[in-house]
Amino acid sequence: MDYKIKKNAPIGVFDSGVGGLTVAREIMRQLPNEKVVYFGDTARVPYGSKSKETVTRFSRQIVRFLQTLDVKTIVVACNTASAYALDEIEQEIDIPMIGVVKPAVKVAAETTQNGKIGVIATQATVSSHVYSSYLRQLNSRMEVIGKACPLFVPLVEEGLLEDPVTDEIARRYLLELMDTNIDTLILGCTHYPLIRDTIGRVVGDGVTLVNPAYETARELKEMLAERNLLTDEKPDLGSNQYQFYVSDGADKFKTFANSIIKYGILTAKTINIEEY
Ligand code: DGL
């Protein structure tokens, strides 16, 4: 195949909604010269309660859309899509893809002292057992306790990052995990780092929280460097270095994105993802 990937093309990043912004902002921080195109599937969030077939179909449409923008790589900034769709879709395209699950597993395995790791995630990610299977491949004695926290995604999408309702839901979900003696807790959904403080208050100092964003961006950088795909251009001031697309509610998304990403004024456009 003589498909040539362009090193100065943008990096595509996607999620079901705003959660993947936690990964995108880390990519912007670690790779400041790169262009980033982000897609949030705000019309169809949440993914975590949907089937593997549906999440794979949605992900495939997003990948097709991002490819129309000529991206050089795609970061699946969504654990649910990483668990359900990544293995299949990466076989179908000519550009490299990376997800968030493997980076999270690597950090958690390096962090735990007692081998007891909690994973909070969507119902889909927990049911896929992707975390326990990767962690046990590294060490078969690892104990992995999964807990689905389905209400966290709508709370984050609604911007209730610091709110008594979020505190109460976090206590309901997380207190039972505390009897299991875990010393490490993977934030296995990219929305959850946005309520990291709330989660940290409930689980306390004895549990280390793992956010895969840093490691994902680091692995992306390494992969691009190995393939000689790091950009050799400096960003033009005033150019469109970061572009955001959503499937609904561009204004709401834009306000949210601007509140957590501090790299200039960001705008967002709505597209019809069903066309892809
Ligand atoms: N942020 C996503 C994840 O990491 C999906 C959340 C959802 O849409 O349910 O799993």
Question: Can you tell me about this structure?
Answer:
The radius of gyration is 18 Å and the shape is globular. The strands form two sheets. Strands 4-3-1-2-9-10 form a six-stranded parallel β-sheet, with helices on both faces. The chain has a four-stranded parallel β-sheet with strand order 6-5-7-8. Helices cover 41% and strands 16% of the residues. α1 links the parallel β1 and β2. The longest helix is centred in the first third of the chain and has 17 residues. The mean pLDDT is 95. The chain starts with 10 loop residues before the first strand and ends in a 6-residue tail after the last strand. By secondary structure, it is α/β, with parallel strands linked by helices. It folds into two domains: 151 residues, Rossmann fold; 112 residues, Rossmann fold (3-Layer(aba) Sandwich). The chain is built from twelve helices and ten strands. The structure holds D-glutamic acid (DGL). The site of D-glutamic acid has 17 residues, from α3.
